[in-house]
Design a protein that fits this description.
- By secondary structure, this protein is α/β, with parallel strands linked by helices.
- The chain contains ten helices and eight strands.
- It has an eight-stranded mixed sheet with strand order 3-4-2-1-5-7-8-6, sandwiched between helices.
- α3 packs across α4.
- The relative contact order is 0.18.
- Bound molecules: adenosine-5'-diphosphate.
């Protein structure tokens, strides 16, 4: 049933903070290294890859030795600015180990609302892909946008990854989280929760099953992942939500194996 995933070409991978930072707050270098290895190998297979990475605040907290996520917005922004530079340095180093060039792209979600910005972003991403460079995309946490809900904004790249998929017309969005997929309820709270293998429509019942409460570092939670899936389904595209530990799971997903939750419209 998932055989079609073997032939996808343009892939957006989103990695959450919880896959990049250990529970003790230190950076998961092995996870990042494996991610660089897997994504570079996919590039070597001729696929086009874009990475949407959270983690700036988590990495900033590790660098500045802050143990509690700051509440104040300017402090979050400052920590994110420190962390983003550090995160890119780590990514560059790991990807270069496998001879893969990367580029940093910082976006705000409203790019889709402004035709000029939208086309600038598309042009940049398309050019990078044409040059064989792997874009590493994050939300620009320094740019304040009044309409944004700042309590949700940070660390929640789920929606941004769906927007990026939409902009580049990706064949699939692979969303890596700290959980094996979408369950009938939060499995960290109820061990009898059942994993959905496939979801074709996001309705209110499903949204209610995603309690919205995330991990210590991730802030998006399951609701924002479902909202991203909603956007992807509206584009008649595909999303797979799976556990990013280990990142090699991406190979299994693209081999058509039944891992994680597949979000795919009925008609396709
Ligand atoms: P990430 O940082 O990897 O993006 P989040 O912590 O933001 O991940 O979101 C994943 C978390 O969502 C899970 O660890 C789990 O605690 C929570 N969650 C809430 N409802 C559900 C559900 N129905 N199925 C799976 N996970 C859920």
């Amino acid at each position: 049933m998932r055989n079609f995933l073997k032939s996808v070409n343009r892939i957006v991978v989103k990695i959450g903070t919880s896959s990049l930072i250990h529970p003790n707050g230190k950076i998961n270098l092995d996870g990042i290294d494996q991610l660089a290895f897997v994504l570079t190998d996919l590039r070597n297979q001729g696929k086009e890859i874009l990475l949407v990475s959270s983690g700036a605040i988590g990495v900033g907290m590790a660098k500045l030795m802050i143990s509690q996520r700051p509440c104040e917005i300017p402090l979050q922004q400052a920590v994110a600015a420190v962390g983003q530079a550090e995160l890119m340095q780590i990514y560059n180093q790991r990807f270069l180990r496998y001879s893969q060039q990367t580029a940093q792209v910082l976006l705000t979600r409203d790019v889709v609302d402004f035709p000029e910005s939208r086309s600038n972003v598309i042009n940049t991403l398309e050019q990078l892909l044409a040059m064989g460079i792997l874009p590493i995309i994050n939300e620009n946490d320094t740019v304040a946008v009044d309409e944004m809900d700042h309590t949700r904004k940070f660390g929640d790249n789920d929606e941004l990854s769906a927007i990026v998929s939409q902009l580049v017309k990706a064949d699939v969005l692979i969303m890596l989280s700290d959980i094996d997929g979408f369950y009938s309820e939060n499995p960290t709270k109820n061990k009898h929760a059942v994993l959905y293998s496939t979801v074709s429509v996001i309705n209110q019942t499903l949204l209610d099953q995603a309690s919205g409460e995330g991990s210590r570092f991730g802030t998006g939670g399951m609701v924002s992942k479902l909202k991203a899936a909603q956007r992807v389904l509206a584009e008649k595209s595909t999303m797979v939500l799976a556990n990013g530990k280990p990142p090699r799971i991406i190979f299994d997903i693209l081999a058509g194996k039944e891992v994680g939750t597949l979000f795919k419209g009925e008609k396709i």
